[in-house]
Design brief:
homodimer, Hypothetical Oxidoreductase Yiak, Chain: A, domain 1, about 325 residues, Wheat Germ Agglutinin (Isolectin 2), domain 1, alpha+beta, about 45% helix, Ribosomal Protein S8, Chain: A, domain 1, seven-stranded mixed β-sheet, globular, 3 domains, two-stranded antiparallel sheet
Chain lengths: ~325, ~325
């Protein structure tokens, strides 16, 4: 594992992106990749950079489109179309729009259709929370999971983020509706570890905790069996309906190339209706209570979601961002053009 | 198991509630209990009636308060205070308010503090969906679960509902953040059945699928281990912060008497920004796709959440609502005063 500084990472990725994007957009996109890794979300940061370049090469993502277009609106609810453009740049654009609308109306929602992969859900919730807002954002995906009750690919892992503003550092939950990321499952399979909870079927169709079996069958389920399945289906329907964009069914199976997701950005402005100081004090009481809980053996106690983000960011700024040699090689190769 | 008609059920419960409430409120409250059972949500319908009478007897719920008071508002975001009044009546009141605000602004949110138990989350989502809206509603609860990473009661099962309008019958997901209801766990323990997925610790602190062990330890966890824990914590913080109401920590442990919950009612008006017919056709495609999936052995295929609700309601209208003799006895006893 290498450690590279945030500035080195941004410079190298900006250089590679200049083949695709104008300079300001290239730099911002590089900052997003590096920023996600800086925050400790390595699975949706720099390691996704090579794949995103390839998506732009293949036309899965249209690099000529870096802004969404407003399709319709009524008060605090708007529909925008990303026209298959550069996902994270467009997601940031409509996040800013949702924040502006929430400042005006107290709550707002932008429903976005035809966007490319937005990388890290939590980024958009965090942007809202850092602006003093609460966020509820979710996206659909291709049908990378089997719904509980069948063995056919049928629903997405539809990541969702919930974010709450906090003076000492915003809180943010960022999770896919699957129990494990596919990458994590592969690592556990290689290490011969068993899962804590069954999250897929084996090739015989039995629930299993063995990641090797799920890797073989490709039959991963949503978390919590029927509950995660229901959540996944509803998030997909809400995102696609609000934006009149693609459903998971339209996006297709993983092999089809994941193109044109439907995404929802709901933003609430609590400071408009309650005292922000009182709210912060109340949040702090729960955070302190959770931190003080006796940890169960082998697990590092309980933390509010995102509570450790600021410390991770500081450590990575100080010591450099950890990145595999393979990923860094690809990034520096792309920079040479 | 007895079967009683909806009208019999409403009449009997109205009679008992007249000792607590004026006639119009008594009848509406009885319709809510009976309606929830009619829809097949037996766990949050007539069987909760005796407990709710007892909550009013004990003053846990203030029967003299049947309307919430508006505390503050900004555009489409409002805070209301229920003053520990009659939960489901007040939840219906603010649901109607959220629908009215969403008609005006495209999206709206009412944050409600100090409400009593609202019975069934799905009712409020369904009210929105039946009005052509989408709904996102959630409540916090007392700390009836242990968060992943500790063995102390520390978070709630915070039910959430997501609802989508549909001409053939609104879709609604209604779920607590625990894998199993406590009642279901008890039934499975009595039947000697094992759980499909570990959802609590045994008395030694190990993850277990044995419901008898969890009944002994009382250490039930949120669904999906760390994922459900994060979701539960965030829902609590959002509900309590937006309303400046009680957190799960304030509400306390189950033995404390669950009093004064914080609840959120978000309502979206998709028909204001997209064509309702196109939206309906799109939802129908996913519903049809899910229904046509090959069912895995022993499980009845996949359905969109709430898809079977209308059929259940029709059956219960035709054949009567199933109710245990014990519950019906309590209802008829209360009717005699």
């Amino acid at each position: 594992m290498l450690h590279v500084t945030y500035d080195e990472a941004v410079a190298a990725m900006t250089a590679g992106l200049l083949r695709y994007l104008p300079e300001d957009k290239a730099r911002r996109f590089a900052e997003i990749f590096a920023g996600n890794s800086l925050d400790g979300v390595y699975s949706h940061g720099m390691n996704r950079y090579p794949r995103y370049l390839s998506d732009m090469d293949k036309g899965l993502c249209d690099r000529t489109v870096t802004q969404a277009e407003r399709v319709s609106g009524f008060g605090a609810l708007e529909v925008w179309d990303a026209h298959f453009g550069v996902g994270p740049l467009i997601a940031e654009q409509v996040t800013c729009r949702a924040i502006d609308l929430a400042r005006e109306h107290g709550i707002a929602c932008v429903a976005l259709r035809n966007n490319s992969h937005w990388l890290r859900a939590g980024r958009y919730g965090l942007m809202m929370a850092d602006a003093g807002m609460m966020g509820i954002c979710f996206t659909n995906t291709c049908m990378n999971l089997v719904a509980y009750g069948t063995t056919e690919p049928s629903t997405g892992n539809n990541p969702i983020t919930l974010a709450v503003p906090r003076r000492a550092g915003s809180l943010v939950m960022d999770m896919a509706v699957s129990q494990y990321a596919f990458g994590k499952l592969e690592i556990m399979a290689q290490e011969g570890k068993m899962l804590d909870t069954p999250c897929g079927y084996d090739t015989e169709g039995n629930l299993t905790c063995d990641p090797r079996e799920i890797n073989r069958s490709k039959l991963m389920m949503p978390m919590a069996l029927w509950k995660g399945s229901a959540l996944s289906i509803m998030l997909d329907l809400m995102a696609a309906s609000l934006s009149l964009g693609r459903t998971s069914l339209d996006i297709g199976r993983p092999g089809d190339g994941e193109k044109g997701m439907s995404q929802v950005f709901i933003c609430l402005n609590p400071a408009a209706v309650v005292d922000a100081g009182e709210m912060d004090a109340q949040i702090e009481r729960t955070v302190a209570f959770l931190s003080a809980l006796p940890p169960k053996d082998g697990v590092h106690g309980v933390h509010a979601p995102g509570e450790n983000l600021a410390a991770t960011r500081q450590r990575n700024l100080r010591e450099g961002i950890p990145v595999t040699e393979e990923t860094w090689q690809k990034i520096t190769d792309a920079a040479k053009g």
